[in-house]
Design brief:
Largest sheet: 6 strands, mixed
Helix content: 25-40%
Strand content: 15-25%
CATH architecture of the largest domain: 3-Layer(aba) Sandwich
CATH superfamily of the largest domain: Alpha-D-Glucose-1,6-Bisphosphate, subunit A, domain 3
CATH class of the largest domain: Alpha Beta
Number of helices: 14
Shape: globular
Length: about 450
């Protein structure tokens, strides 16, 4: 089991658990592992979200890279997918995003991207951890003219805006958009610096909310984890679509014109149907995770589309897509990967793809969503110490309870218990046609876990 990295990099409370000294070690070890096969001083990009601790973690990260002898380009506040895109575009040796994604402001995190703009695999993270805790880290210190140099390149954000112009401007300018208005919630996060620029340059009418970050209001009752305000705004202002990004901009959830949520599974259904019609759904396959709704699987079966599931984490979705040449994958949470465009989840890209579908097919968001029937799903989070959350599979009483519920569901639903990869939680998910029943059973399992392992 990895000591520092979870399902989405390292994520902890900033300056107490994610300390500058730990970040320095992560940077130095990461620079070595990701650049050891190069014959030049590596160049590494650093981007961050709007958290108050961002500057602190960025400084420690920069120091670690420079100490190793790597050169750094500081992108400033910028969405995660922009960093991934720019890494590949400028042939950097690696990149880092400093963000805790959808978590509250006191958390922060570090996630690495390879020179291909993709999240690094488990085995590379394990190698970084081995070096972090080794005696050899001190020897990886540049001296004299080998010390790295840093450069501020916040101007590269405009390259990301151009990416959207290049892919959408021509198509969208030939479609009637006069009555189409969107509401955009940037979660006071990283998309606050770019979303408005993108929608303005593409000529899409918009309202924008939660777009004034102050360092501590990121994800605070806003964004993809708190849709209530956006739902109300969409209805009050008679918008065609509501768009909610998360703190670092790699996920997107939507709200239809009636204020109803459109989750990642529904987005995958709408997108796959459109891409299949266009002949662009490679190998006729959707890649999703074990957390995806049963409705997505049934939608795929009914429409002759192959459905592949991976463990939770968008990088596992990406690994499966790369391995078998698929072009569309994602998670219920709104991480959607359009691999023909960008090798990571991209909230702005996802929203624009769905907007293009709606405008081109002259559909309302609610009409487009009818393509899939979403089964009731209940998710209960149980607080469990990090050092105990992986013990759950070895506890007989819990396993017997799970088996009993599976027998009662008899194929018309499912139960999934999994430790969170980013927080001290065990997640209990039940799915089925009877919402009252699954709520009752989810709470029973949660109470049993709490009693057995909980804080």
């Amino acid at each position: 089991m990895r000591k520092y990295f979870g399902t989405d990099g390292i994520r902890r409370i900033a300056n107490t658990e994610l300390t500058p000294s730990l970040v320095f070690k992560v940077a130095k070890a990461g620079a070595h592992v990701l650049a050891k096969h190069t014959d030049h001083a590596p160049t590494i990009l650093i981007g961050r979200d709007t958290r108050i601790s961002g500057g602190l973690i960025e400084s420690a990260m920069t120091a670690g890279f420079l100490s190793y002898g790597a050169n750094v380009k500081l992108l400033g506040v910028i969405p995660t997918p922009a960093v991934a895109y720019l890494t590949k575009r400028y042939k950097a040796d690696a990149s880092v995003v400093i963000s805790a994604s959808h978590n509250t402001y006191e958390f922060n995190g570090v996630k690495y991207f390879s020179n291909k703009g993709m999240k690094i695999p488990d085995e590379i993270e394990e190698e970084i951890e081995d070096i972090m805790d080794s005696d050899g880290l001190d020897s990886m210190t540049a001296v004299g003219d080998k010390i790295g140099v840093s450069e501020i390149r916040t101007d590269l954000l405009e390259e990301y805006v151009y990416f959207f112009r290049k892919n959408f401007e021509e198509e969208l300018e030939n479609i009637d958009k006069e009555k189409f208005v969107v509401a955009i919630d940037t979660a006071n996060g990283a998309t606050s610096v770019v979303a408005e620029k993108v929608f303005k340059v593409l000529g899409i009418k918009y309202h924008i909310i939660n777009n004034e970050p102050d360092g501590i209001n990121i994800n605070s009752n806003c964004g993809s984890t708190h849709l209530e305000g956006l739902k109300q705004f969409v209805k009050e202002h008679k918008c065609s679509l509501g768009i909610a990004y998360d703190g670092d901009g790699d996920r997107c959830l939507l709200v239809d014109e009636n204020g109803k949520e459109i989750d990642g599974d529904t987005i995958l259904a709408i997108a796959s149907n459109y891409l299949k019609e266009k002949g662009s759904l490679k190998n006729n396959t959707i890649v999703a995770t074990v957390m995806s709704n049963l409705g997505l699987k049934k939608y795929a079966e009914e429409n002759g589309i192959n459905f592949v599931q991976t463990k939770v984490g968008d990088r596992y979705v990406l690994e499966e897509m790369l391995k078998n040449g698929y072009s569309l994958g994602g998670e219920q949470s709104g991480h959607v990967i359009f691999l023909d465009y960008n090798p990571t989840g991209d909230g702005i890209l996802t929203s624009l793809m769905i907007i293009k579908v709606l405008l081109e097919k002259n559909l309302t968001a609610s009409e487009a969503s009818k393509i899939i029937k979403i089964y009731p799903q209940v998710l209960v989070n149980v607080k469990v110490p990090n050092n105990k959350k992986y013990e759950i599979e070895n506890i007989t009483q819990i396993n017997e309870k799970i088996k009993s519920i599976e027998n009662e569901l008899d194929g018309n639903g499912r139960i999934l218990i999994r430790p969170s990869g980013t927080e001290p939680l065990v997640r209990v998910m039940l799915e089925g046609s009877d919402e009252i029943y699954i709520k009752e059973k989810a709470n029973e399992v949660a109470e049993l876990i709490q009693k057995t392992l909980g804080i």
